[in-house]
């Protein structure tokens, strides 16, 4: 029996597998399971490869209005001291 699996990511075919499966039911099940695991791993890799790398969420401190030079030692505490 021929088994064909085609994987599409965003409508574009990225993987296509064709395998001949034969033997006992147990052998066929093992072959199909192994093929499924292989296709799953390759599909995940293809999906990750097609992702656009996101830009960083935060800027480095000091870059356009950051907190560089701000005192963090408590010396600017505005509470009244008794």
**Poorly predicted residue ranges:** none
Task: Decide which structural class fits the backbone.
Answer: alpha+beta
Instruction: Determine Rg (CA atoms, Å).
Output: 28 Å
Helix content: 25-40%
Task: Kindly describe this structure.
- The chain has one helix at residues 25-49, and strands at residues 2-9, 12-20.
- The longest helix is centred in the middle third of the chain and has 25 residues, at 25-49.
- The mean pLDDT is 76.
- The protein has a domain at 2-49.
- The protein has 82 residues and is α+β, with helices and mostly antiparallel strands.
- A hairpin with a 2-residue loop joins β1 and β2 (12-20).
- It has a two-stranded antiparallel ribbon with strand order 1-2.
Keywords:
alpha+beta, two-stranded antiparallel ribbon, 82 residues, elongated, 30% helix
Brief synopsis:
With 82 residues, the chain is of the alpha+beta class. The protein has 1 helix and 2 strands.
Strand and helix map with partners:
Layout: E1 2-9, E2 12-20, H1 25-49
Antiparallel strand pairs: 1-2
């Amino acid at each position: 029996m021929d088994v064909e699996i085609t994987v599409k990511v965003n409508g574009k075919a990225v993987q296509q597998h064709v395998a001949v499966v034969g033997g006992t039911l147990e052998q066929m099940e093992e072959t199909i399971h192994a093929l499924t695991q292989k296709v799953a791993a390759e599909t995940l890799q293809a999906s990750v490869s097609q992702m656009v790398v996101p830009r960083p969420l935060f800027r480095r401190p000091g870059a356009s209005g950051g907190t560089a030079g701000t005192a963090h030692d408590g010396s600017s505490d505005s509470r009244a001291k008794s």
